[in-house]
Give the backbone structure.
Amino acid sequence: DAGVIQSPRHEVTEMGQEVTLRCKPISGHNSLFWYRQTMMRGLELLIYFNNNVPIDDSGMPEDRFSAKMPNASFSTLKIQPSEPRDSAVYFCASSTQGRDNSPLHFGNGTRLTVT
Amino acid sequence: AQSVAQPEDQVNVAEGNPLTVKCTYSVSGNPYLFWYVQYPNRGLQFLLKYITGDNLVKGSYGFEAEFNKSQTSFHLKKPSALVSDSALYFCAVRDLNTDKLIFGTGTRLQVFP
């Protein structure tokens, strides 16, 4: 089991550029979560999917953020245009059906720096 | 709303000594509680969970947690700390209304040789 795979590990971009973060969940997991971690705000849930369908996107900070899950093995988080305050570590996590209290499995994150 | 609080930003302990990382919760209904650990430049890893049953829950790497309903606490413990236990520890509760996992602010554990 390769675990949750995120790419890239590091992304440095200039303000105004489009950024796309990628995630491959663990095979067989049908829930996928995108989190953002910063020193100031800690861990924030941005959006989560169940069976490829977005269930709750209330944590997405602005319309500049969008997420997709075209199939069970791939998800993207896009920021367009990016701003310096978007600098953070973005984590993807997956689990089996949400309400069985199965643990989340996190990827190693993408560290985004927007200059 | 469901929430957890981790009152200590950092806990320092000498190797070989017992450690405790504190967590208190506020929920309506039965609490579903979790502990995760984060090592540098890594994602969070699941340690243990309390759903129901025995108040003492055993988890990975020799950690355990005690659920105390009267004190609304779910403290993480280990009888003998290792330097390699140094990491960031998060307590979390599942919000049954939204099905979200709500994380605390984290406690940095530093184990000194």
Notes: The mean pLDDT of chain A is 93. Chain A touches chain B at residues 4, 33, 42-43, 45, 48, 55-56, 91, 93, 98-99, 101, 103-109 (CB under 8 Å).
